[in-house]
Every structure is written in C-alpha cells, then in structure tokens.
Amino acid sequence: MKQAHDLSPGLLRQRRNLMISSAILLFLSFAQADIHSFQVLGISATFGRPEAVVYALAVITLYFFYRYVVYLLQEPEFKISTEFFNQLNRYAYPKIVSLRDRTYPAGKGFEIYENLGVRKAGKFSWVIMVAAEKDQMGGFISKDLIVSLKEIWWEAVKASLLTLVARSYFTDYFFPFLLALVALTVTFLEK
Question: Which of 81, 111, 113, 135 could crosslink 131 through cysteines, CB 3.0-4.6 Å?
C-alpha cells in the first residue's frame, strides 16, 4: 500500500486547534471540572458563571471545526475516493466476474474492461464495460454491465474500512472530526 501524502500546513494548524479544543472539552466533561477562577501571569479572573467558560470553549471548538472543514475541502491531494475505488475493485472483482458470467454466459472467462467508479448508473450503482461474447472475427463484443452496491455491499464495507482505518487517512482527516463530535456531544448532553 502506498504511503499517504503530507498534509498542508494550514490543515495541520486547523487540525491541531480542533483536537486541542476538543480534548480540553472532553477533559472538563469527564473530570467534572468547574472553573471558578483563572490565573495567568499573576492576573486572576473569577467567574460568576463557570459554565460560561465551557460554552465559550464549545463555541471555539465549533469555529475550529468549521475552519478544519474549509481547509480540508481545499486540500490538493485529498484522493480518498480514488483509494476507496482501488480497494473496492480489488475486493469486488470475483463478484463482478460472477455477475458478468450470469448476465452474459457467452462472455465467461473474457475481459472486464472497466473498473467500478468510472461511470455511474444510478446513485448506488455503476456501469462497467465487459466482454460479453466473441464475434465472428475472433474479437470480442463488449456490453455494459450494471453493478449495484447491494450486490457488493460487503466488499464496499471492507474497502471503506481499509481506506479509512488501516491508513493514515483516518488519523489525518477523520479522527479530528470524530473527536470534535464526541466532545461537543458529551459537553451538551451533560449540561
């Protein structure tokens, strides 16, 4: 498996900010901490409503969440769908061959010309070109085969898990989302 690319500096900053604010929110929630006063460089501040600190931190986390999404969408090398379809084609190939053999029995043992993900047939299906039968000149007649997600759902689950969890895509891109969602959910369910 090839190595994922480096993240852009802007995305790294936003990821760091989002993860730090989310981790602080989680810590305050699980520690059941009430912040009554705060002291920095000898300057002391006492809060009449300590929950305001947590709400302010939650708003900051939402802001960092938004910034993270903006920077993520601008990421130049974010090719997770390409990696997903590479894995899906690898796992689904035997089922696609079986489906082709059932749909076009005369094409058994011939080529599959296209991969999943190139042409869509519907919201959850793809069209791929397959060799369906031999022509009279010794060549092949190609036809379209529709592959539905319901026919390869297990392969899609495996491809998704491998793409997200077994690679740095998960920790680089998706873990900050999960951490922020958990932190915000725990914070607001607690209050």
Answer: 111
Please report the DSSP string for 48-97 in residue order.
Answer: SSTHHHHHHHHHHHHHHHHHHHHHHHT-TT--HHHHHHHHHHHHHHHHHH
Four-point Cα dihedral 155, 159, 162, 163, nearest 10: -170
Residues in the chain: 191
- Contact assessment for residue 75 and residue 7, using Cβ atoms and an 8 Å cutoff: yes
Distance CA 104, CA 165 (A): 37
Could you tell me the pTM of the whole model? 0.59
Q: How far apart are CA 57 and CA 70, in angstroms?
A: 20
- pLDDT, tens digit, 9 for 90 and up, residues 24-46: 888 888 878 777 777 777 787 77
Q: What SS3 class is residue 125? A: strand
